[in-house]
Write a structure and sequence with these properties.
- With 141 residues, the protein is mostly helical.
- It has helices spanning 12-25, 38-45, 49-62, 78-102, 107-119, 122-134; strands at 65-68, 72-75.
- A hairpin with a 3-residue loop joins β1 and β2 (72-75).
- α1 packs across α3.
- The longest helix is centred in the middle third of the chain and has 25 residues, at 78-102.
- The relative contact order is 0.09.
Length: 141
Amino acid sequence: MILLDYKDRRPIYEQVVEKLQDLMICGVLEQDSQLPSVRSLATDLSINPNTIQRAYAELERRGFIYSVKGRGSFVSDTSSIRALKVSELRKELGGWLGEARNAGVTEDKVHCWVAEDWKGQKSMVREEEQRDKSGESDETF
C-alpha cells in the first residue's frame, strides 16, 4: 500500500502523508473509510509509531482525515481532497505553459503534446523526439 524511499531527502512522515493523500485522491481510500491504526501501519512499514502519528496529525490538520476518539482515523470528504489536487495541478500546468511559451512553443504544439500524452501514445512522442534529434523534422515549435 505504501512504499517508502529511504534515499528521499524528505522526512518519512511527509512521504507517508503524500502516499496516503494519493490513495485518497485515486479512490483507494474512500470517504469515511477507516485508516489503519497507528500501531499496525507502523508495524507494516517497520517504522516508529510516532512517525505515523505525526503523519496522521498532519493529514488531520490539512483536513484530509478526521479522528473519532476510541475508534481511530477516517478519510474526510474526498471531493475536497480532489479539488485541492486539481488546484495544485492547474497551478503547475500554468507554470509549465509559461515556460513553453517563453521557449517559443506554439499553442498548437502544446495541444498536440497534451492529446498524445492523454491518450498514452508515448511511442509517437519518442518518434518525434528522434526525428527532432536527427534533424529530419521540418516542424517548428
